[in-house]
Structures are given as C-alpha cells and as structure tokens.
C-alpha cells in the first residue's frame, strides 16, 4: 500500500516548525525592530515584558528564565520538525509547549488570545504529526534506512 500522506506530513512538519521558529526570530530581533511591519516584540526585553503579563505570579528574573527555556525549546522543536529529526518527540514537544501557552494565556489574558494566535491549531497539529508512523523525507527516515 502506498503512503499517500508523504506531502501532507512534510508540509505539516514545515508549517509547525516555522510556527515555532518565527516567534524566536522575532523576540531575538532578527525579523526587525519593535513596531515595524508585523513584528510582535522585536527584542528580548519586549518579549519578557509580554511574558510577565502571562505569568503574573512569577517575578521578572524567573520570567526571564522561563522565557529563555521556552525560547530554547521552541528553537529545538522548530529545527527538529523542519529537518525531521526525532520528529515524533519534537511533535509531542510542540503540543506540550503550546498547551502550556494555552493555559497561561487563557488564565492571564483570556481565551481569545490563544484562539487569535492559532495556539490551539498548533497544539492539535503537533498531536496529529506525532501519530504518523513514517516521516518520509526526514532525517529519521534517512537514519532508519542506514541502520537496516
């Protein structure tokens, strides 16, 4: 039986990976200065200011640490999804990260923000992607073929 899900799973991996890498680039100032174009933060300080509103129970140094952990996690998940390395685990990680965002965003600013930002969609996409058995055109598939 032919795998008819080759291209959709590849597109889902890329879309979800880019969904994680773009905010990282934004908060590091790579996409442009604050207030230009569609830039949400434009620098780390603006990102931490926003994150502080999502985590009002934590003081700023702790939010800085949490923001750093989230940024590293998003970077790793995004890269792994795009190249297809440890894809199942990266997809599960993507869902866990986005479910965490859903909880903090909903509790602090309401349900509309995670809906507007597509956080529910990203969480569901990660779950769907984690259930695929073979990731065609991925490092996983390439490494799996070399070990056989």
TrEMBL record:
Keywords, alphabetical: Membrane, Transmembrane, Transmembrane helix
Domain of life: Bacteria
Pfam families per UniProt: DoxX (PF07681)
Transmembrane region(s): 62-83, 90-111, 117-138
Entry keyword annotation includes Cell division: no
Main localization category: membrane
Protein name: DoxX protein
Organism annotation: Chryseobacterium vrystaatense
